[in-house]
Amino acid sequence: MDRNRLKSIIESILFIWGDPISLEDLASSLELRKDYAREILLEMKENYKNETSGLRLREVDGKFQLGTKQENEPYLKNLIQEKNEKNLSKPALETLSIIAYKQPVTKLEVEELRGVNCDSTIKGLLDFDLIEVSGKLDRIGHPNLYSTTEKFLQKFGMENLEELPDLKELEEESN
After folding, report:
1. By its UniProt entry, which Pfam families does this protein fall under (predicted)?
2. Distance between CA atoms of residues 104 and 48, nearest Å
């Protein structure tokens, strides 16, 4: 098979696979000798160093992975953050709703209401600046108290928390 065609196939495999893939698995799937597969991969790695490419080929512990160049990371972060903020997951929305209506509230109180661990959800909401640590509870362990932020109000088009829908009215509408 033509060397350029092999590069194209390997690039497609690395792109679709996502996770690091071992040289052995790659060579085996293409029915290539390991040393020849490695030679092609190292050639590809050099080609990706070109300034016009936004990709790089990484080798970690004998496994290869296609990724983006580090210098492009700030632009990717902005896009990913904007997309994630626009598309909050159902657990994130549930957690955010509890915090909005019960604030200030501890993580334990949120977890008791949701019935599940909320560590990662709360971390995500903090990362998106939709909630903040607004204080500490004066009891053993001094747990954080969480409240919504100005950005929360902006995202949901409110001027203040009084504009939150009335919970009793929402319950009546859903029945």
Report:
1. SMC_ScpB
2. 50
Question: Any idea which fold 3-72 has?
Answer: Arc Repressor Mutant, subunit A (1.10.10)
Helix, strand, or coil here: 175?
A: coil
pTM: predicted TM-score of the whole model, two decimal places: 0.51
Q: Token pair for residue 141?
A: 């362990």
Given a contact cutoff of 8 angstroms between Cβ atoms, the answer to whether 82 and 93 are in contact is: no
Residue 85 reports pLDDT greater than 60: no
* pLDDT reading at 131 higher than 70: yes
Report how far Cα 19 is from the mean position of its chain's Cα atoms: 15
**In which residue ranges of the chain is CATH 1.10.10.10 found?**
3-72, 90-161
Instruction: Identify whether 104 is preceded by a cis peptide bond (ω within 30 of 0).
Output: yes
pLDDT of residue 81: 62
DSSP 94-151: HHHHHHHHH-SB-HHHHHHHHSS--HHHHHHHHHTTSEEEEEE-SSTT--EEEEE-HH
pLDDT value at 84 more than 60: no
118: nearest Cα among 139, 137, 143: 143
Match 């950005």 to its residue by tokens: 151
